[in-house]
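Researcher: Sequence recovery benchmark, item below. Answer with residues only.
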């Protein structure tokens, strides 16, 4: 399904949802809840960002658990946390740039939390 958005508040809201996805799914879910009846584009993109934010959150929790509770391999958790930070920032900025141009964003991995109607 192809959809294009014009420059305006819907691309800005979708961009904010994608940029905030690097910190977890809370802000994108709030955006999804606020815009789900008004704007299809920002709703779909906020749902996509929330699903990616959940994957980031789960990966961060797993890396932290490895860092804290696995003896002799805790440094791998630290490396995973640093790698996750870089990956989350990269994909969030890439998605922001995509939605700012009016195109849909996609992520290589996500956990389904919010239904997107794709």
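Model:
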């Amino acid at each position: 399904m192809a959809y294009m958005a014009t420059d305006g508040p819907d691309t800005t809201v979708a961009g904010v949802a994608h940029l905030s996805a690097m910190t977890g799914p809370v802000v994108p879910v709030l955006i999804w809840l606020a815009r789900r009846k008004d704007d299809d584009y920002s709703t779909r993109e906020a749902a996509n960002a929330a699903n990616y934010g959940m994957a980031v959150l789960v990966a961060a929790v797993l890396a932290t658990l490895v860092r804290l509770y696995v003896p002799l391999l805790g440094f791998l958790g630290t490396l995973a946390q640093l790698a996750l930070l870089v990956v989350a920032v990269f994909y969030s900025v890439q998605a922001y740039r995509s939605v700012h141009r009016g195109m849909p964003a996609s992520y290589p991995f996500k956990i389904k939390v919010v239904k997107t109607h794709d």
